[in-house]
């Protein structure tokens, strides 16, 4: 028949059944423990991977071939958890790197006044990257992080540039611009401190804020405060001064200068003991809104209603130390 040559093309193997007296030799199960993974880092992120065991048992099947039985716990959930932890660690490390890069790029800009166009572009890019990694997506639901005094490190608000201008130096300069938030009373105080050769003084505005969304607050300014000048009560009198290359000895008139110094100290104590001057702000243009786009325990980024951006650092943060 035509079918015989067709089948004859395939080799055949005679099956020899195993002896009925032969007993399968059981072998002790081989257990391979896989230790748990407990990855911890200084960032406080941990992963736990439960143990699982692999058991291999050799048996003879009816064809005389070895069979293998394996019991393996699924590793998919562990892999997912480990990957998520690795991603979280990398995200935190990247955020810290961006924060430090931003602070470094602000050095020498005088809060943005002296920033070049290239530096502004770099700062803007770093701000955008940080905003995309905001660890507090609903800052108004974490008011405890907003509490406290925040030091202005950078702004694009042109309204502050005349104030920051070096034209008022060297006699008087802006020493610090800050914002203090008290979430218990929903109060905000914006303050500018000026420093001169013999005194410091401040100008502040007191305001109330209302939460309008998880990120946005409405601010209403109510009062202005002119702080009492804090005069330097001790002026060191040098032994000589140099004028046009000539040294002038001050020892002959040191007694007179000491008398003037004592009078100045008395005036300083009198003025400094006076209460600050408070006044009501006009109703026009006394409201604005503020959007917090990044917030953690050290850094805050906010955007105003005019499209301006503000970078503030928490008082006492290590980011204030270059």
From TrEMBL:
The keyword Signal does not apply. Keywords: Chloroplast, Plastid, Transit peptide. GO terms for cellular component: chloroplast. Residues 97-312 form the Plastid lipid-associated protein/fibrillin conserved domain. It is found in: Plastid, Chloroplast. InterPro entries: PAP, PAP/fibrillin_dom. Belongs to the PAP/fibrillin family. This is Plastid lipid-associated protein/fibrillin conserved domain-containing protein.
């Amino acid at each position: 028949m035509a079918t015989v040559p067709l089948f004859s093309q395939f080799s055949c193997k005679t099956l020899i059944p195993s002896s009925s007296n032969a007993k399968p030799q059981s072998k002790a199960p081989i257990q391979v423990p896989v230790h748990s993974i407990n990855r911890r880092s200084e960032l406080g992120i941990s992963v736990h991977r439960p143990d699982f065991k692999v058991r291999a048992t050799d048996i003879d099947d009816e064809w005389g071939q070895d069979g293998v039985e394996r019991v393996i716990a699924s590793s998919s959930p562990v892999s997912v958890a480990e990957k998520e932890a690795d991603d979280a660690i990398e995200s935190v490390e990247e955020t810290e790197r961006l924060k430090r890069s931003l602070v470094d790029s602000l050095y020498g800009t005088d809060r943005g006044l002296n920033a070049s166009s290239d530096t502004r572009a770099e700062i803007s890019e770093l701000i955008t990257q940080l905003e995309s990694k905001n660890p507090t997506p609903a800052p108004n639901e974490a008011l405890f992080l907003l509490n406290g005094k925040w030091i202005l490190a950078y702004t694009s608000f042109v309204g502050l540039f005349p104030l920051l201008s070096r034209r008022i130096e060297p006699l008087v300069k802006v020493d610090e611009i800050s914002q203090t938030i008290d979430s218990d009373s929903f109060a905000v105080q914006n303050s500018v401190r000026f420093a001169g050769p013999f005194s410091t003084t401040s100008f502040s505005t007191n305001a109330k804020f209302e939460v309008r969304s998880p990120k946005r607050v409405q601010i209403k300014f109510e009062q202005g405060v002119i702080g009492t000048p804090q005069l330097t009560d001790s002026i060191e009198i040098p032994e000589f001064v140099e004028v046009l290359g000539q040294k002038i000895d001050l020892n002959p008139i040191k007694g007179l200068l000491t008398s003037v110094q004592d009078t100045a100290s008395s005036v300083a104590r009198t003025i400094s003991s006076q209460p600050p001057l408070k006044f009501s702000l006009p109703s026009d243009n006394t409201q604005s809104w503020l959007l917090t786009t990044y917030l953690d325990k050290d850094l805050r980024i906010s955007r105003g209603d005019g499209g301006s951006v503000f970078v503030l650092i928490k008082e006492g943060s290590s980011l204030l130390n270059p």
